Here is the input.
Amino acid sequence: MTAGKDGHSPADGRQRPISEQALEAAEESPSLDPRVQEQLGRVFRSFCDDLVQQPIPDKLAVLLARLEAKQREKK
Amino acid sequence: MSEAAFTDMMVAEMPYLRAFALSLSGSASVADDLVQETLVKAWSHADSFETGTNFRAWLVTILRNTYFNQYRKLSREVQDNDHIHAGQIAVGGGQETSVAMRDVQRAINLLPADQREILLMIGVTELSYEEAAQICNIAVGTVKSRLNRARARLAELLGLTGDDSTMLDRPGEDRKNPSST
Here is the structure.
């Protein structure tokens, strides 16, 4: 575990407005090495693409057709 | 909108909806239940969809709320047996990516739920920061900070160092590196 590598310790004692935005601004600062970020981007992109390309189970297509038919009957 | 048009839209969004459900729950069986329930709810609330707004975001909202209301506890239990999911999602990707897929899903399972949902809304369903913020009822800045924390944690869990030799692709089959001769 590599905790604490970001140096955003709030221990400087200065009074800060504790607004959500201020806390976020501190957390938003880039913490990843650009090369790691690039590598993660590739790995994650390929993960997402593979996931979206998964075949849709037949039961979902069947359910959709049933729902549409049911809706038609109502009218 | 006609019934057929509504169905067509749902069919078009199905891959994204199911991908989101799979990665959010970490379980193929939970994902399919989740998508089924989402489809039923979408039909019964079809009137509440405003034409011209993002249909995918609307469906993701329904699925996400369903998950957090009903399936979260259940899916946590299922996740412990993550081989189920890994076996399922490896099918479409081919052997080369199956290892990476499994590892990435495992790492995603370990993220806090609030970071995981943001990461997946942006990455898998390709919603905008604004849409994700609206769905989760949080500020856009919070979306960004959760996304950054999710990415940092993911890189850490996957042991990424920026060095391509640590890539999850099998190192012996690195076709993408022309300088390896």
Residues 34-74 of chain A form one domain. The two ends of chain A are 60 Å apart (CA to CA).
